[in-house]
């Protein structure tokens, strides 16, 4: 039997106002959806114990020490889709992960329960975006109807766990790693 | 939560259904239509409500008719809220909207009605929450740092327990004068009586009083779970003993006035901060003067932002430049922008500097 170690995973959910970040979190953690909207001010925080490959782990909020970042947009709102890039940049600046290139992001297009004719962003367009950003996993969900939410968070938890492990064995918090790659010679002096 | 209305519904259903049955429809169809109307109400789908109202049986029961009317009423209120906010932001375009501004507008609208709410909302915006409408959140965060300082002089143990987390748990309460988190109408209007009768900084003392009232609950949270502290403190305690909190707030405020607080928290606030310029409640205050303070603080913020950016940039390239040189350059840059303002060639200069080091 695999080891049962409790790991705290931190997942940050970002996106424009009203795209459904709180609803996704509530649907995943509490299996509930509320039709009334109340804007979140600042940060909200929920935890959930989940079993990933026989290992207990937890999820959610605050920039620093994050293991995975989820970018959410509303498929019926093109502005929220166009903002994804700036949310990603914001995260990379604020959280300054050790290796921005390999840091796991997951993209979620929410509110797919709304009528088809209101949809502004096609799956194809979203997937092209995700591909261009380094093959980010992409999910289309409905927090309202609990569509795909569980599946999306499973991938999120797995990516977070993998990230946590790579940090753990990658030297952790011991300052700048010593670069021993041969091709890095010219980086030694920028002047 | 939905228990009550559905119970009412089933009671009135017996009567209405008999009428409906007269119109030669079956119970099943009645139920289907009832559910459809309920969904339309929930989704605020006016178009299908009109269809249901027209098709046989209409809106079926008085309960459903009420629900449909409430939706319309709600739409009207939303429009009033939106008008109030739009008017304020058009009148003072320099004010930045923030998430939660509408929570305050909503309280004023409900208590004062559309006409009286307009001047009151402008005054609250400029003389109470002005710092929260600046282009950056940092002045608001400086307000929040008063909270640990108040705790430090009242209960060091609690202050130390909170040291692992920033006081951002009080952000929503501060920005909205508690309207975002206190949902009971009677509670929030009672609290507004108190808050609006005192200087703005009292709202921070109130938050400290709330924390102190939950001391035991907070000390029970494991030390290594600062997020849990944030989560707990960002919600109001239930039940909410407002009268008790109000009197302990006043006591804190009188015993430890803002100037006496440690960590230099009061000194660190801008002289143009609303906490310093709106201290005399009831005194004649000019909105024009408040506007000037706002402009002044915006300038200060830009300077601060610039200093930070320059510092971060130079820090990144510290090795090629040498430490002392960096410090001197930052100092010179600060003096320069203080004298000349931020508009002008300095930006392009910094841009060039960045390009230079990046290559």
UniProtKB/TrEMBL annotation, chain A:
GO biological process: regulation of vacuole fusion, non-autophagic
CC annotations in GO: fungal-type vacuole membrane; late endosome
Domain of life: Eukaryota
One of the Pfam families matching this protein, by short name: Ras
One annotated GO molecular function: GTP binding
Ranges in coiled-coil conformation: none
Segments traversing the membrane: none
Keywords: GTP-binding, Lipoprotein, Methylation, Nucleotide-binding, Prenylation
Keyword Cytoplasm: no
Record-stated family: Belongs to the small GTPase superfamily. Rab family.
Official protein name in the record: Rab small monomeric GTPase
Source organism per UniProt: Talaromyces pinophilus (Penicillium pinophilum)
Automatic annotation (TrEMBL), chain B:
A Gene Ontology molecular function term of the record: GTPase activator activity
Designated name of the protein: TBC domain protein
Signal peptide: none
PROSITE patterns found in the cross-reference section: TBC_RABGAP
Membrane-spanning segments: none
Coiled-coil boundaries: 64-91
Keyword Nucleotidyltransferase carried by entry: no
Organism: Talaromyces pinophilus
């Amino acid at each position: 039997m695999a080891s049962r170690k409790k790991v705290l995973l931190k997942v940050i959910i970002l996106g424009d106002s009203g795209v459904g970040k709180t609803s996704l979190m509530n649907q995943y953690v509490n299996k509930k959806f509320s039709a009334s909207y109340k804007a979140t001010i600042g940060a909200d925080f929920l935890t959930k114990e989940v079993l990933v490959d026989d290992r207990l782990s937890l999820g959610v909020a605050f920039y620093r020490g994050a293991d995975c970042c989820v970018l959410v947009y509303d498929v019926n709102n093109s502005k929220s889709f166009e903002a994804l890039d700036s949310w990603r940049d914001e995260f990379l600046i604020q959280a300054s992960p050790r290796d921005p290139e390999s840091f796991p992001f997951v993209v979620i297009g929410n509110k797919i329960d709304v009528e088809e004719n209101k949809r502004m962003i096609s799956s194809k367009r979203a997937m092209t975006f995700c591909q261009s950003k380094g093959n980010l996993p992409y999910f289309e969900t409905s927090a309202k109807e609990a569509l795909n939410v569980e599946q999306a968070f499973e991938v999120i938890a797995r990516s977070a766990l993998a990230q946590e492990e790579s940090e753990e064995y990658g030297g952790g918090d011991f300052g700048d790693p010593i670069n021993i790659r041969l091709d890095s010679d010219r980086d030694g002096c920028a002047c | 939560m939905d228990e009550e209305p559905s119970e009412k519904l089933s009671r009135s259903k017996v009567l209405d259904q008999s009428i409906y049955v007269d119109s030669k429809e079956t119970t099943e169809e009645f139920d289907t239509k009832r559910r459809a109307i309920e969904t339309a109400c929930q989704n605020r789908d006016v178009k299908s409500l009109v269809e249901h109202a027209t098709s046989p049986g209409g809106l079926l029961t008085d309960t459903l008719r009420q629900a449909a009317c409430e939706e319309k009423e709600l739409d009207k209120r939303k429009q009033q809220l939106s008008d109030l906010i739009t008017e304020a932001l058009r009148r003072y375009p320099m004010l930045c909207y923030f998430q939660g501004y509408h929570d305050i507008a909503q309280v004023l609208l409900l208590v004062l009605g559309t006409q009286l709410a307009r001047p009151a909302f402008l005054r609250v915006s400029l003389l109470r929450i002005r710092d929260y409408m600046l282009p950056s959140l940092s002045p608001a965060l400086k307000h929040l740092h008063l909270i640990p300082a108040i705790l430090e002089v009242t209960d060091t143990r609690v202050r130390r327990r909170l040291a692992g987390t920033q006081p951002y748990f009080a952000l929503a309460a501060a920005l909205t004068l508690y309207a975002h988190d206190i949902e009971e109408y009677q509670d929030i209007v009672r609290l507004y009586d108190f808050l609006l009768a005192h200087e703005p900084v009292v709202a921070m003392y109130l938050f400290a009083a709330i924390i102190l009232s939950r001391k035991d609950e907070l000390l029970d949270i494991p030390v290594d779970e600062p997020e849990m502290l944030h989560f707990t403190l960002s919600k109001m305690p239930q039940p909410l003993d407002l009268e008790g909190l109000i009197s302990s707030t006043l006591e804190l405020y009188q015993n430890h006035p803002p100037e006496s607080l440690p960590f230099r928290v009061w000194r660190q606030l801008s002289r143009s901060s609303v906490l310093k310029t709106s201290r005399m409640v009831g005194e004649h205050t000019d909105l024009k003067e408040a506007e000037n303070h706002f402009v002044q603080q915006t300038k200060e913020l830009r300077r601060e932002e610039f200093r930070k950016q320059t510092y971060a940039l130079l820090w990144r390239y510290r090795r090629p430049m040498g430490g002392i040189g960096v410090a001197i350059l930052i100092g010179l840059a600060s003096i320069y922008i203080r004298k000349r303002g931020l508009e002008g060639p300095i930006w392009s200069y910094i841009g060039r500097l960045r390009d230079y080091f990046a290559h």
